[in-house]
Q: What sequence folds into this?
């Protein structure tokens, strides 16, 4: 996403976007199979360090981005803590039943949500859509008609936001009476959707005329390959994963190895 | 109807993605709404979870071609990801699975029916997709039984209401604007109308 915020290009920006996506998706799947909270806590902390020092954004901005994550952490963890099953009761009040097992499981889920969020942010903060889709076409052989459609849609985002503001102002001037939130959503959605469909159709005709839909023997304006940063990326995450696992197993914070 | 190109044409793809990106914005806004409702407890938040399946339903109803439901759900979730979702990479995987299962339902009807029933079933498919992910991620099976039942019922009901009924009424309203005529392939009725 193009934030209007000054940032420094870091080595993460220069890695190959397709490779970065694959590495991060692999880590995502790996996190799903971590059931030891100690390993997960270590892993999340390592991601947090990367987020703080390798994305190249100012501290204030990073803190602002991080706030919703704390909310997610609490909200994800709390419902498992209060309503999960377990044997060692710590606290019971009506339907709320906090046990040692459910508390730890809740904590684990909270950290898991946190690490997913950090993986996603590491990706979206250091990847520009143009490089991503050019790389997907070149390295992963995504069909150009899909990639260019995505890029066109990304470019349309500001226009859509402007239209949203226009509709909002128009409704305000006309002094619409509220009919509940579904009705209200429709009032925004119909003009936005219909305008966008019309625009998309016009752009599609133009793009087809310029042969954006053909996939035979394309040349690309941006050639995206691999460089030393890609090796660093793979090496770093391999090291982080191994270190998180080793310290988690041998120097645990909590004497529990499986929260299930 | 020209069937010279295999699969979706660029116009279909672009329209699907543009619609999906709009829903991507809504998906992003939905995050804080969901968290706000969550505060009330008792899985009330699950009632509004169904909003995250609506891109598939609407795209399917509008464009009526194989593959658009999956594409829409992927595009909406990657739009959400690029905008910096608080759920991060998770949304992409959820999007793929939800879209895939909705697509399976639509394929089971051979892309021939476009009514509330089919779309609601598609929403239920997407819900099952999201539950598969929750099962791995959130250990939902370890919730107390009464709590799990509440959770499941709320999510299914919410999905059918939002991505079934609401999606259909949204598309009905869009049909009145006339834009749907340029999207859909000519149907048999259209050809019959020519013969008359």
A:
């Amino acid at each position: 996403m193009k934030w209007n915020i000054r940032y420094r290009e870091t080595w993460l920006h220069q890695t190959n976007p397709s490779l970065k996506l694959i590495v991060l998706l692999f880590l995502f799947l790996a996190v799903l199979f971590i059931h030891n909270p100690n390993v997960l806590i270590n892993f999340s902390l390592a991601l947090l360090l990367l987020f703080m020092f390798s994305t190249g954004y100012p501290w204030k901005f990073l803190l602002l981005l991080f706030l919703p994550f704390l909310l997610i952490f609490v909200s994800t963890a709390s419902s498992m803590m209060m309503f999960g099953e377990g044997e060692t009761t710590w606290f019971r009040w009506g339907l709320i039943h906090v046990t040692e097992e459910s508390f730890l499981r809740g904590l684990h889920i909270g950290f898991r949500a946190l690490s997913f969020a950090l993986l996603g942010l590491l990706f979206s903060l250091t990847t520009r859509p143009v490089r991503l889709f050019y790389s997907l076409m070149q390295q992963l052989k995504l069909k150009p008609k899909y990639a260019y459609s995505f890029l066109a849609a990304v470019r349309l985002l500001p226009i859509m936001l402007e239209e949203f503001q226009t509709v909002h102002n128009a409704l305000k001037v006309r002094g619409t009476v509220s009919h509940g939130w579904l009705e209200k959503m429709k009032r925004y959605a119909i003009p936005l959707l219909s305008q966008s469909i019309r625009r998309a159709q016009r752009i599609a005709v133009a793009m087809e005329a310029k042969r954006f839909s053909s996939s035979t023997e394309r040349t690309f304006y941006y050639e995206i390959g691999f460089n030393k940063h890609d090796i660093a990326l793979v090496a770093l995450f391999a090291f982080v994963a191994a270190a998180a696992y080793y310290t988690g197993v041998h120097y645990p914070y909590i004497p529990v190895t499986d929260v299930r | 109807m020209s069937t010279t190109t295999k699969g979706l044409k660029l116009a279909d793809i672009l329209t699907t993605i543009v619609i999906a990106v709009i829903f991507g914005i809504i998906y992003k806004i939905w995050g804080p709404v969901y968290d706000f409702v969550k505060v009330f407890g008792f899985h009330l938040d699950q009632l509004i979870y169904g909003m995250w399946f609506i891109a598939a339903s609407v795209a399917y109803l509008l464009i009526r071609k194989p593959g658009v439901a999956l594409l829409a759900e992927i595009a909406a979730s990657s739009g959400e990801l690029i905008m910096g979702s608080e759920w991060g990479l998770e949304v992409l995987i959820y999007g793929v699975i939800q879209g895939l299962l909705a697509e399976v339902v639509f394929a089971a009807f051979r892309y021939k029916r476009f009514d509330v029933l089919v779309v609601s079933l598609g929403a239920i498919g997407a819900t099952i997709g999201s539950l598969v992910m929750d099962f791995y991620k959130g250990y939902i099976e370890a919730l107390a039984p009464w709590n799990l039942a509440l959770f499941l019922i709320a999510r299914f009901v919410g999905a059918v209401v939002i991505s079934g009924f609401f999606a259909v009424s949204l598309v009905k309203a869009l049909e009145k604007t006339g834009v749907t005529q340029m999207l859909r392939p000519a149907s048999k009725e259209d050809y019959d109308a020519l013969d008359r």
